[in-house]
Structure formats: structure tokens, C-alpha cells
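TA notes, week 10

Several of you asked for a full example with nothing omitted. So below is the full record: C-alpha cells for the whole chain, then the designed sequence directly under it. When grading your own attempts, check the secondary structure regions first.
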């Protein structure tokens, strides 16, 4: 039977991990997979996470199943407070504890098509490749909307709105809440307002993928677009990942937050339990407990926010250093967009051949579409990258 299986295309981002590991050069630079790394190239366990784990370990008396197939309400509420702010509309909220942010995105797609089997999912072009592969795997109809202006390396806002004019009532529109992956280009708050108006006029439902809250301008700032959408639209899905901002990648922790009319809330909460049950039954709990403990314990929360601020400021500083170095080398402002982008990623705008040249000549690993993980840099490698970019003729 298994002889019928066809080889699957590998994940190009994950493949880079092995390619980098196998490169013997000492001064190689890993700008591939989207994992935060400090100046020493390590991905440390955050202080508040360690302390929360210690407290959980001490207090835990059982490993029996948690209270609901959709996860613990206390986790949904803590995440809703983080994402939507303390005054979020409690009577409109349903929640699902998921396997990572990816699991939240996936369950969001499932909910949309349960509600409307004719739905079309609109995804930005470009987007995180897994959005598209998951939709294909589900045999779910999807269409791209233009997002990125390759010339200016900013959001192609007019093109985006023009494409979204074709959205039908009951379609699902996927938006990156902040720190767009792979480009680093994000809408302004005024543009978020226009997006909200368009979706409202079209009767479409947004699915906001929020995987990097706190990695751009700040926890509040990075949630501003999502909050605006949540305040203006009657029905909203938000897939929040805890992998990056809590640094708990391998715990696989995420949350799908759903806002509906209060009259639909009970059925929605039951539907969220239903989709988890059909997928894996109860969700994993350890990461969700860590997150909930941190968010609801003032001294842990303050320490987490302080460490997250250091992480964010480090990336912002690297962005400025790289833009400054390229300004010096090229005598132009052509690369200033790197300082304007937010989050871990920037799309440089190099050709695949130029990306290959930087890898061969300088040991610099970035994704083939020229997405760079800024957190892979440090003060020593910034000038190396800038020189390689210029030498590759970008
Ligand atoms: N969405 C985007 C845009 C991402 O970049 C990621 C990154 O991994 C995810 C979702 C999901 O993250 P995870 O499933 O590791 O929480
Ligand atoms: O885009 C990234 O690099 C991160 C990590 O299949 C990631 O989102 C990449 C590929 C993948 C899962 C996670």
C-alpha cells in the first residue's frame, strides 16, 4: 500500500538547518529558520519560563486530563488579555488551546469551513509557506492577495485593497497581526482601519495570525492592528503563537481566540472542543500552564516583559546597524527599509542566484526568497553580511 506514496517536497526553511550545520566554515552566519538567537547564537530559556516551570513542578499534584477538550478557560482568558487588552469583550470570547500557533491557524481554517463549506481563504502573497501547504493539504480553496512591493520593500497597500475587493461574504482573510513573515513589512494603523472597513463592507471574516507579538515595537503596539480589527468586526479569529515571545518553541503552545456575537458563543465554544477532539482530543498543557502562570503572576510577568524588551531592542539595534553599514558601503539610502521593517525577518530583495552567491562566498545562510532572520546577526557579523550583500550585487 505504501508504495503508492509520492515523495513530498521538503520544507525549504527546515532544510536550511541541516545545510548550515554541515557547513564546516567557522565564520558562517545562520539567518535561516525563524528562531530568536542572542549575540552568542543561543536560544536561551527565558528567566520567567524557568521560574514558572519550577513553581508548576512544585504545585502540580496530578497529570490527569485537563478540564476541557478546548483547553483551560484560564489560559484562553490570559491570552485574550495579552492579545486584546484587559478590557476585551468577555461575552464574545471563545477559546481553543492548540498545538503551537500552527495548530491554532489550522483549527481556524477548520472552523471557517465547518461554518461555510464554500469559503475561500485569502492569503497574502508572499506569506509563511506553511499557510499555503496546510490549505492545499486540506483541499481548501484559497487565493492570494498582493501584499509586498518588491521595489520599495513596503506593503503594496493599493494592490492589497484592490485584490481584497474580490472577497465574498463568508470568505476568510488571513492577515499577519505584526512582524510579517517573510517580508518584515507591515500596515500602518491607518491602513489597518481601511482593511477593517473593507472586510466589514464585504462580510468577510479575518483570521489574524499573531506569531510575533512583542518582537516588533512592543506588546501593546504589536497588537494594535489586531485590536482594531477585533473592535470593528462582528466575527474574528485570532491565532496566537507563544513559541517566539515566550521562547517555548518545542512546547508547542498556541491559542485560537474567537470573537462572535454573544448569542453564538456557547455553540462556538462547543465547536472548538469538537475540532480538537477530532484532531488529537485534549491539547498539550505544559506550555499553556507556563504562559498562564507568567501572565497571571505580576513579578513573573514583569520579568518576562523586561527580557522580551531586551530581545526586541537587540533586533531593532541590529536592523539599524545593518542599514547604517549598507548606507556607508553604498553611499545610498537603498537599504534603509531594513531599519523600517519589524520583527525577526526582512526580505532583502535578492535574486536566488545572489542568495546562493552569499552562501558560497561568505557562508551566509538565508531562505531562497532572500528572507533574513535578523536575530541571527551580531555586531561582528553585521559588516560581513553588508559586504556580502554589496559584493553579490544586490
Ligand atoms: N505563523 C507564522 C507567520 C509563523 O511565522 C509561525 C512560526 O513558526 C507560526 C505561525 C507558528 O508558530 P508555532 O506553531 O511554532 O507556534
Ligand atoms: O518561518 C519560520 O522560520 C518560523 C519557523 O515548517 C518555522 O516560522 C519554519 C518552518 C516550519 C515551521 C516553523
Amino acid at each position: 500500500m505504501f508504495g503508492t506514496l509520492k515523495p513530498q517536497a521538503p520544507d525549504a526553511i527546515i532544510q536550511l538547518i541541516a545545510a548550515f550545520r554541515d557547513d564546516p566554515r567557522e565564520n558562517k552566519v545562520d539567518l535561516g529558520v525563524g528562531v530568536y538567537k542572542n549575540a552568542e547564537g543561543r536560544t536561551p530559556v527565558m528567566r520567567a519560563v524557568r521560574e514558572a516551570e519550577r513553581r508548576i513542578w512544585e504545585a502540580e499534584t496530578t497529570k490527569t486530563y485537563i478540564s476541557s477538550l478546548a483547553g483551560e478557560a484560564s489560559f484562553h482568558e490570559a491570552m485574550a488579555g495579552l492579545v486584546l487588552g484587559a478590557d476585551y469583550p468577555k461575552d464574545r470570547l471563545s477559546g481553543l488551546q492548540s498545538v503551537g500557533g500552527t495548530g491554532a491557524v489550522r483549527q481556524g481554517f477548520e472552523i471557517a469551513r465547518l461554518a461555510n463549506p464554500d469559503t475561500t481563504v485569502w492569503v497574502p502573497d508572499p506569506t509563511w509557506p506553511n499557510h499555503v501547504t496546510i490549505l492545499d493539504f486540506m483541499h481548501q480553496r484559497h487565493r492570494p492577495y498582493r501584499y509586498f512591493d518588491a521595489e520599495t520593500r513596503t506593503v503594496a497597500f493599493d494592490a492589497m485593497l484592490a485584490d481584497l475587493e474580490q472577497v465574498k461574504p463568508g470568505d476568510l482573510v488571513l492577515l499577519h497581526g505584526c512582524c510579517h513573515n517573510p517580508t518584515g513589512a507591515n500596515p500602518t494603523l491607518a491602513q489597518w482601519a481601511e482593511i477593517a472597513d473593507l472586510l466589514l463592507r464585504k462580510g468577510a471574516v479575518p483570521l489574524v495570525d499573531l506569531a510575533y507579538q512583542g518582537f516588533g515595537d512592543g506588546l501593546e503596539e504589536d497588537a494594535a492592528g489586531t485590536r482594531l480589527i477585533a473592535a470593528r468586526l462582528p466575527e474574528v479569529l485570532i491565532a496566537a503563537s507563544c513559541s517566539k515571545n515566550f521562547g517555548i518553541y518545542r512546547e508547542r503552545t498556541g491559542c485560537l481566540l474567537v470573537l462572535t456575537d454573544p448569542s453564538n458563543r456557547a455553540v462556538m465554544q462547543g465547536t472548538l472542543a469538537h475540532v480538537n477532539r477530532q484532531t488529537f482530543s485534549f491539547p498539550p498543557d505544559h506550555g499553556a500552564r507556563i504562559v498562564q502562570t507568567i501572565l497571571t503572576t505580576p513579578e513573573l510577568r514583569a520579568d518576562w516583559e523586561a527580557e522580551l524588551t531586551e530581545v526586541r531592542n537587540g533586533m531593532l539595534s541590529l536592523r539599524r546597524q545593518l542599514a547604517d553599514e549598507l548606507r556607508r558601503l553604498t553611499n545610498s539610502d537603498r537599504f534603509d527599509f531594513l531599519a523600517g521593517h519589524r520583527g525577526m525577518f526582512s526580505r532583502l530583495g535578492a535574486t536566488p542566484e545572489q542568495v546562493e552567491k552569499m552562501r558560497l562566498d561568505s557562508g551566509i545562510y538565508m531562505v531562497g526568497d532572500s528572507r533574513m532572520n535578523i536575530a541571527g546577526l551580531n555586531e561582528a557579523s553585521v559588516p560581513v553580511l553588508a559586504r556580502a550583500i554589496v559584493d553579490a550585487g544586490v
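The chain has two domains: 11-45+301-391, 65-296. Use that as a sanity check on your answer.
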